[in-house]
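Bumping my old thread because nobody answered last time. Still need a sequence for this structure:
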């Protein structure tokens, strides 16, 4: 290669280098900072609360069973159905019961027919007795005048006694027949009552908690067909640790939170079971619940009992971002918004207790601008 060409190449490289230095790459413009308001967190006194998980229970739960034996023709309700008091919930095959009523009525008719026969016998015996007495009176007069023999007088006297015995026997038989009529009448009444037992009825208005039989199965007296819980009258039951037993009393104010219904109720303890469970070292506390739409046994909740004040870290409830079961907040950290995952506890007015995720001194962003996201540059007001 000639020296001139070599010098030309070197010159072009140098010019290119100078060009790059004189035209530096342009910088991307930075996003504007978002102005925010922050709150520096610090521990404060919060009313102490002992919490215990519990369950809604029906105050009255009863099995509904048949009072007579027979095959089930129908069960007219399902688990969860609401029933009225005296509503027919099941029907038993009643053909045997119908036959029993017919037989009882036949026995009553027979007893009544016997009553007519006995009455006729009494009438006949009464007539014979009157005749015997009249004859005896006549014979007595004749006997006094020596007009009849002693034997004739004795025969007349004997006929009176025989007629009287026959009459007394007829009257006694009438009493026996009347007793049989009354017994037959009671038999008819019992058979008719038993026939009504073919329809199994709800003892009170409530909800079917469990269905325990199906059509075609044998209904046996005392064997439950359904479990029914009374619609009115529920209570919340929770096990509370035994260390609090000395501080608990009936009528004490407590808070009951029922999660499924999103209800928080200020109530009073209605009963404290004095027996301590040996395995859990707890006592059962019961709280009567008012009538609430949708309430039923089995719903879970929490019982809160006030205790001494304690230190706690709280944040504004409105600062919490809810995404399903995940709860987060935004904090200010070195001029940047950062997302923090938090675990929350109790609510007190417009503030919520923080169990984990934040510490005293953290600066929480509140209120949160709509456009603010994790990583955005911020400027505090």
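Sorry it took so long. Here it is:
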């Amino acid at each position: 290669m000639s020296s001139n060409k070599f010098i030309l190449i070197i010159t072009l490289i140098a010019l290119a280098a100078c060009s790059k230095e004189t035209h530096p790459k342009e910088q991307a413009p930075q996003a504007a900072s978002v102005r925010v308001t922050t709150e520096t967190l610090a521990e404060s006194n919060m009313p102490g609360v002992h919490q215990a998980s519990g369950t809604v229970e029906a105050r009255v739960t009863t099995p509904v069973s048949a009072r007579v034996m027979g095959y089930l023709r129908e069960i007219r309700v399902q688990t969860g159905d609401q029933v009225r008091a005296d509503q027919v919930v099941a029907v038993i095959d009643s053909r045997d019961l119908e036959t029993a009523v017919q037989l009882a009525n036949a026995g009553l008719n027979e007893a009544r027919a016997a009553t007519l026969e006995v009455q006729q016998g009494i009438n006949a015996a009464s007539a014979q007795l009157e005749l015997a007495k009249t004859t005896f009176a006549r014979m007595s007069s004749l006997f006094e005048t020596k007009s009849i023999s002693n034997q004739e007088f004795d025969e007349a006297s004997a006929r009176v006694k025989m007629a009287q015995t026959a009459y007394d026997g007829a009257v006694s038989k009438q009493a026996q027949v009347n007793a049989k009529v009354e017994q037959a009448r009671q038999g008819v009444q019992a058979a008719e009552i038993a026939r009504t037992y073919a329809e199994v009825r709800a003892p009170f208005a409530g909800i079917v908690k469990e269905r325990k039989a199906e059509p075609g199965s044998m209904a046996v007296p005392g064997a439950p067909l359904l479990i029914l819980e009374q619609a009115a009258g529920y209570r919340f039951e929770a096990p509370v640790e035994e260390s609090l037993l000395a501080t608990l009393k009936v009528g004490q104010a407590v808070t009951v939170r029922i999660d499924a219904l999103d209800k928080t109720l200020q109530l009073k303890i209605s009963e404290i079971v004095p027996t301590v469970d040996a395995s859990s070292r707890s006592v059962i506390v019961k709280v009567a619940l008012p009538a609430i739409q949708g309430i039923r046994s089995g719903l879970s909740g929490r019982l809160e009992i006030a205790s001494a004040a304690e230190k706690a870290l709280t944040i504004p409830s409105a600062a919490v971002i809810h995404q399903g079961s995940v709860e987060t907040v935004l904090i200010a950290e070195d001029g940047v918004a950062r997302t923090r995952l938090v675990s929350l506890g109790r609510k007190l007015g417009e503030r919520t207790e923080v169990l984990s995720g934040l510490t005293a001194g953290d600066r929480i962003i509140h209120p949160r601008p709509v456009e603010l996201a994790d990583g955005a540059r911020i400027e505090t007001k």
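Residues 95-144 form the longest helix (50 residues). Let me know if any region looks off to you.
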